[in-house]
Specification:
Blueprint (H helix, E strand, L loop, with lengths): L3 E9 L9 E7 L2 E6 L9 E3 L4 E5 L1 E6 L12 H10 L2 E6 L10 H10 L6 E6 L13 H7 L3 E2 L9 H10 L6 E3 L5 H4 L4 E2 L2 H6 L3 E2 L2 H17 L2 E4 L5 H12 L3 E7 H5 L21 H13 L4 E3 L7 H4 L16 H5 L5 H9 L1 H4 L15 E11 L18 E11 L2 E3 L1
Parallel strand pairs: 1-4, 1-5, 6-7, 7-8, 8-9, 10-13, 11-12, 13-14, 14-15
Antiparallel strand pairs: 1-2, 2-3, 5-16, 16-17, 17-18
Helix pairs in contact: 2-3, 4-7, 7-8
Length: 417
Amino acid sequence: MTNIVLKNATIIDPKSAFHKQILDIKIQDGKIIEIGNNLASDANFIEIVEDNLHVSQGWMDSSVSFGEPGFEDRETIANGLKVAAKSGFTAVALQPNSFPVIDNQSQIRFVLDKAKNQATTLYPIGALTNGSEGNDLAELFDMKNAGAIAFGDYNKAIQNANIQKIALQYVQDFNGLVISFCQDNNIKGKGIVHEGPISTRLGLKGIPTLAEELHIARNLFLLEYTGGKMHIPTISTIKSIELIKEAKAKGLQVTCSVAVHQLVLTDDQLEGFDSRYKVNPPLRDEVTRKALINAVIDGTIDCITSDHNPLDIEHKKLEFDLAKDGTIGLESAFGALQTVLPLEVVIEKLTSVKSIFGIEENTIEVGSTANLSLFNANSNWTFTKENILSKSKNSAFLGQTMKGKALGIYNNNTLIL
């Protein structure tokens, strides 16, 4: 147990009466017991003094991959959660793309067991279909009872519309959430980057934006027919934004996320054929990047994810067309986002994730459970390999200028700095 006093912390929490005030926060046995100026502490409390210390409700990442079980060479759950804590995240939603795929209750229990006694809380996503192969629904109700917070096949779109329909109908019996990655595989074909002038010039096969948009339109039609709740992860096109905005106006229960790299980077990065920039959906052009930022600000996009996906060097440092899709993103998420978005918007989009998954939010008030992200909002620095805490080093942000730095968290009665 860690009893602490956070000294001179700027509180960023619009739901708190202390929003934007610089105060001390006293925490005992995992609860906030006092908030005020010059709070006294004794030998039972550790004083935390940091330059430009800011505090917000704990951040949650809606999409992380850790590899374990099966791909521990990429990342383990224990180290992945330590990385998340150092990166300012008090909670992460774990994707089911391990080996074996997390598609039954015993696998849910396995990852939850591996995540015990960590400062960052792990919430598992169960696979929507057996083996994430898109053919038959997995044991959704059993996984829900074991602790799964939602169901989806990571970076795999359900090509069979009837499977998608049945899933949306079935989970309503227990208020479940379907995560629907959207991509028409036939239209994507052998494409590996955004279809446009740069893909043409570089001779790389392009993925039309239509591949994503057509699937989003289909899934929204299905949602309108079935009812229920759907979360569309990592959207990346202008038309996708418009389709989701229209669906929300109709009253459909749909939410969506965007990946940090889609808000910061563009397909201009592809000039050097560096496979660190090979992600799915692919990096888009500058016009799209700006549209995604506007959609974050106006609320069409509900949350931002790092889409953290550690990959070993054997699968990433290859010719561009052979390399696997994905970048790590936890360590760089906060600093990268502040280069393109105001601080309060960044915090809102990193904390609003919880409401999507039905997880309790902890406002910064006396008597609340202390679930806090700690950060310096103003430091300028460059992201290098020394800043990577993950086992895998496949970051698309190496060499990028960052604004603001995550310091750590206080959660589960534990301080990580």
